[in-house]
Design a protein that fits this description.
about 725 residues, Rossmann fold, about 65% helix
Amino acid sequence: MGLSKQSTGINALNGIIETKSESSDDFIVALAGNPNTGKSTVFNSLTGMNQHTGNWAGKTVTNATGKFTYKNTRYTLVDLPGTYSLLANSIEEQVARDFICFGNAHTTVIVTDATCLERNLNLVLQIMEVTDKIVVCVNLMDEAKRKKISIDLKKLSDLLGVPVVGTSARNGKGLKELKDTIEKVVRGEIKTAPNKVDYDAIVEDAINEVVPYIKALIGDKIDNRWISLRLIDGDNLLSQSLYSYLNCDLSNNEILLEIIEEVHNKLRDEGTTPKDLRDQIVYKIVKTAESISKEAILSENTVHNQTDRKIDDVLTSKLLGIPIMIILLGAVFWLTIVGSNIPSSMLADYLFRIEGYLTKFFAWINTPKWIHDILVLGMYRTLAWVVSVMLPPMAIFFPLFTFLEDLGYLPRVAFNLDHYFKKACAHGKQALTMCMGFGCNAAGIIACRIIDSPRERLIATITNNFVPCNGRFPTLIALASIFIAGGTGASSSFAAVVSVLAVIILGVMITLFISKLLSKTVLKGLPSSFTMELPPYRRPQVLRIIIRSIFDRTLFVLGRAIVIAAPAGIVIWGMANVYVDNASLLTHCAQFLDPFSNLLGMDGYIMMAFILGLPANEIVIPILIMSYMSKGSMLELDSLAQMRQLFIDNGWTWLTAVCMMLFSLNHWPCGTTLWTIHKETQSWKWTWVSFIVPTITGIVVCFTVAQGVRLLGLV
């Protein structure tokens, strides 16, 4: 979905943007702003549940659109990607800029953060150069008040030449005034006259030389002064956008190119290179923002962020940053592991109680046994295991993860790991996508959209599977508990968490190694730069955290897993129940794979459990138990002690457990993740690469460990 009628109310036809919506009377309102300004909260507060999300056409950047009604008039609100500027250095900036320029929005609402107004005014000033129809929303006024920052909104409005509204979107304050102001701007009741940036004389003279010709080419479809400035600055992406949306090819216009070349020559004669020109433009915008903020901010507590800085001195320090991050990650895992045990057990009991009713129902309608077994013991039982094992951990992990995100800690994680990812020729934001992968690799793949560079986004996508998702936690925890921790209880839980943490750290190291290997081979290129903002710490909103984590992440991922797991249950049942020469297909396949699996420190049944567990990692252990006990359907033992004895009876040693843990960490992504990779990359090629890379890594790692231990005679 993109700049289309379905996603934004904007229909692209023959390169010309035409404003449309479900009703021709709808007004289009663009919502822009820096990240971490509360823009999404403003969007959600205005639109409620009347919204949907998608992707911009040809982009992996998410858009969200919604509707609201005010005074019997309907408005379509388009939430643009959070961006720091319109210079189009990233996909987010290009998408936001193109919509503001060519989307024919009736007005653009720019959301700013009252606690750091000066920094946010940079974007405001840039947008004011593009369009006159602007409303500035100074959000987080409650945070500013708490930090003893006072802003004169009337003065700010006079300085900018556009209406300014103060809001506290989290509490709903100021939103009615914001709607009222939007209405008056779109209807022309408030006349806006943006006070645009005055550049140095040399830049202004250059602009004035280009403006007349630009006006002759495109008329008043877009601000000629801004277009001239961007072309002088060498913005080639803007030329592409002008051709796409206005069918105006400026890149091959010889007269225009001659004019711009003449302007560049004059600038060089004045001692100004193209790089100097960009610096002058940015410098003037920054200085103007600084001047406006000084006049508009009546009183500012200059020490309001000292507490944040003191905390950051610890959380982002070279000595303590990484250890604290690991401890916090361990705490989240421990809470997820311990907290999900009881609800997972209760959910499993409930779902398998339903299985009993389904069996009685099929018996009542005289259904043939094989149909009952396929649908109930195959498909339903697989679904029951997936839901009971996936849902409780995700329902705990995602809120905890979102809590850290809402608190403002996750950008510190990216800051701590940025150096290491840079060394691996990868993107610093990959740390955030990796963290999301702990909850679910499919969610981690979707999170890769935040990475601007297509090359680095692919690296993050391919390597996300090296961090274990919650579907692999049960396998890792069970094996760590019975073969490494050696028991049950609190001390065993702690030992299991430490063991799992060790596996995770190994996964991060492998992620960095593979990322660098990919960047030096099939995905060559230089690491891109990006703006990393450490936002102020904020009090998390518990209700919003629960809603976002449950609906946007947990249920979304669970839905995809169910779609994959349902048909897989039938395949698993068939493998276990179709016999050839007095042995099931599962047994034949296991025997065929046994020699290869032994080289990796495992056996054929373990390998088949991983293969049949492709739909969802949660069902690997139940499939393995079913295989060892020669049962025709998946099952689980009552205790870890019984599981340990079953595995030992089938020739397991501590090496088998370690190799299975390593292969669980390093093997093909689950079906849900592979589906998501294909959806995100729109490429079967990269989907297969994402399948092959971790699989080969797992084979190499397990072979090295197994043969090394055997060579040393440790088993």
